[in-house]
Amino acid sequence: MAAAKGACFNHVSRESTDTKRLAQFYQEILGFEEIESPKLEFNVIWLKLASSFFLHLIERDPKTKLPEGPWSASSAVADPKSLPKGHHICFSVSNFDSFVQTLKEKGIETHQTTQPNGKTKQVFFFDPDGNGLEVAGWEE
Predict the structure, then answer these.
(1) What is the pLDDT of residues 75-85, one digit of tens each?
(2) For 49, which DSSP code?
(3) 86: closest CA among 73, 68, 64, 69?
(4) Domain assignment of residue 56, given as a range
(5) Mean pLDDT, residues 132-137
(6) Whether residue 133 sits in one domain with residue 97
C-alpha cells in the first residue's frame, strides 16, 4: 500500500538565469499560459497547460553551489540526437507534422524518430536553457 493517498502530479520546476526568456519559449512553442505567481524573495513565473499541467520557472541564484543541469547553457547547443533518455519532459500533440514544421521555421534543431509500430512519431529538442523536450504524436 502506498504511503500517499490521493497523490497526483502537480508541477515540474526548472531553474533559469532568464525566466522571462524561458517562459516566452514555452508559451510560443507549447501554448502554456502565464498564471498568477506568488511574491517570493526570488523571481518565479508559473505557467499552466490545459487544466492540470503546471511549470514553475525559478530564477537561478548565482550564489548557489548547485551544478548546472546536464545541458544548461545560455542557448541550446547540444545535439538533440544525444538527448539523454532519462532527462526530458514529453508532451503530446494532435498536429505533429505541422508542429515539427513550426520548430524548424523557428530554427530549433530537432531529431525525429518513429517507433517500430510505425504509428508513434517523436521529435526531440531543447528549450533555450538546454532542458530536453520530447513531443509525440500518434496515428490511429
Answers:
(1) 444 677 776 66
(2) E
(3) 69
(4) 9-60
(5) 90
(6) yes
